[in-house]
Amino acid sequence: MLDQNKIPLLDALKANAARPHAPFYTPGHKLGEGISQPLADLLGKAVFRTDLTELADLDNLFAPQGVIQEAQKLAAEAFGALQTWFLVNGSTCGIEAAILATCGTGDKIILPRNVHSSAIAGLILSGAIPIFLNPEYNPVLDIAHSITPNAVQSALQQHPDTKAVLIVYPTYYGVCGDLSAIANITHQYNIPLIVDEAHGAHFAFHPELPTPALDAGADLTVQSTHKVLGAMTQASMLHVRGNRIDCDRISKALQLVQSTSPSYLLLASLDAARQQMAMHGKMLMSRTLELAEEARTRISQIPGLSVLEMPQLAGSPGFVALDKTRLTVTVSGLGLTGFEADEILDEKLGVTAEFASLQHLTFIISLGNTPADIEQLVQGFTSLAKEYRRSNLTVKNQVWLNLDRTLDYALQLSPREAFFAVSEILPLTQTNKRICAEIVCPYPPGIPVLMPGEVITKSVLEYLQQIQAMGGFISGCNDISLKSLKVVK
Question: Cα–Cα distance between 76 and 79 in angstroms, integer?
Fold first, then answer.
């Protein structure tokens, strides 16, 4: 057992910042002396004394032998990993590195269509060929869940030469699929299971939270420590357990996608966040769960509102657990769309959600929230229900039913080939049967409908137009008004 109370990287950074010396190295502001006055007025000069580079006592992120290595070993123990890497380019670079380390040009990888854009970037960088599975969609709740073990089993039977499986756990809504069953199936083929656990870094620290991905059988997981724990924005971790992942390839892949001038402010925040959770994680998560339960209970009692609960999800394919710190509120009973409610709460009632969809608002409740935050959230919804309620909104969501059976998909080029191909932008009406050169993702349900390399079909175009007509919006593509699309020339 390591001494989890230690914060070696943070201590080394503090010592170097306090050491009297004349700095003739990067960064150019020289311990804050050259920082512009408006920035210094906002942040204070003290923070810039720790904005240092790879000095002798501060180790090297790409070849750690000192305090970074020690900090990463402490993190590996705290999060239950065999080996941990600190990430300063967010979970994005971790997902990219995971794909680069397991797949080469022409290799197959199974993954859900509702993956983060970083996975698509990983496909483009690696040249891997995606075998996409649609996540289960609950039309009553209007929420996409996880892919199922049966879907993974079927895909592997059809593509036994697959090099890796990647899944999202949990989803943005806090929904967790049957990761243990998927891991068992994947490992029968002796291939690694990669997990985008960006929103699950807190799972390891309380028994009432879903099972951490590594404990459920993941070979590699990427966590956004900054999203739900106490690290600074952009600071994340990559964890590996078992022997199906080549750790040397991970290190080499990270050198391709991480900055060679990593921010020590971000690295130190990872060290400190690990120490905080290792020493006080259960207490902090207990308090967070209590706040979340208070919000869930009080908001569910407001007429016209409902919250996403375990009983609603029970029996749903693609669901085995719900992160109780993630709060999703259905507002359609107020006669409002989620987008309208989000705007009112943010601009008039002082409450800002994580994201909005057609019928819902989703909130992240973390160790940084306070009872005062919860009170403001509840009062915001109380005011919303009293002052802004309209006649009931009828949301026809049948258009999203059976997404995998209603749309035609055909991958004509690999995402890499399509991305680097010469492209042109055409009016939407002229894109039928052309090869897409961008990502097109409608919300809801947040599942990419077109990827680079896929053939654009009439059914896809009609589907996208239906989504827009019903109040959804399109993201990922160059023209979010959907009057045009980028296609391979």
Answer: 5
